[in-house]
Amino acid sequence: MPSLPWHAIDTVLLDMDGTLLDLHYDNHFWMEHLPQRYAELHGVSRAMAEMELQPLFERNAGQLQWYCLDFWSAELKLPVRELKLETAHLIALRPDADTFLAAIKQAGKRVILITNAHRDSLSLKLERIELAPYFERLISSHDYGFAKENPQFWDALQADIGFDPTRSLFIDDTLPILRSAKAYGVNHLLAVKEPDSKKGAKDTGEFEAVDDYRDLIAGL
């Protein structure tokens, strides 16, 4: 587990899904619930639903529309917002994420949420998990028109909040996003070892990973 040079960190940028919240909700929705409801509402088999959805998912992965509920509602001819409510009981905080948030806020760090989640997804989760009080800002990449994978997201973030990348910590569970942040010059980067509580540890590539948030606040 990495020890952080907290004296050299002013700003903490945090992802939401898979970083602060258990990714099981999102994985279950997109991989299980949505295909099932697509099959039911369009009168096709589950196997046929998956055959139709898979190429769409692959074509749009990592782009802004991948995270956009309006896009998927139109593309799939489904009320995606309403369908997400059907599994909202699965929305859950990752272990001790709130302890970590409270500690870094108490320490006077600037704490900002940056998520690719659509504003409607963000609102749904904030209704169930009290995250907002910990943050100075809650930023969706849809506000800027660029996903976090895109270098232009970081330019837009800089123009918006004015942060020093060399004195910033960014935690995210997606490797292409961490690599995008690294290319921009964000100095302190951490992946997440187990973003989905039902899937076990994942390969975090060249990045050190947080396993237990309580360990991160040592020396804060």
Automatic annotation (TrEMBL):
Its EC number is 3.1.3.5. Transmembrane segments: none annotated. InterPro entries: HAD-like_hydrolase_sf, HAD-like_sf, HAD-SF_hydro_IA, HAD_sf. GO terms for biological process: DNA repair. GO terms for molecular function: 5'-nucleotidase activity; metal ion binding; phosphoglycolate phosphatase activity. Pfam families: Hydrolase. Keywords: Hydrolase, Metal-binding. GO terms for cellular component: cytosol. PANTHER family: GMP_IMP NUCLEOTIDASE YRFG, PHOSPHOGLYCOLATE PHOSPHATASE. This is GMP/IMP nucleotidase. It comes from Pseudomonas cremoris. The gene is yrfG.
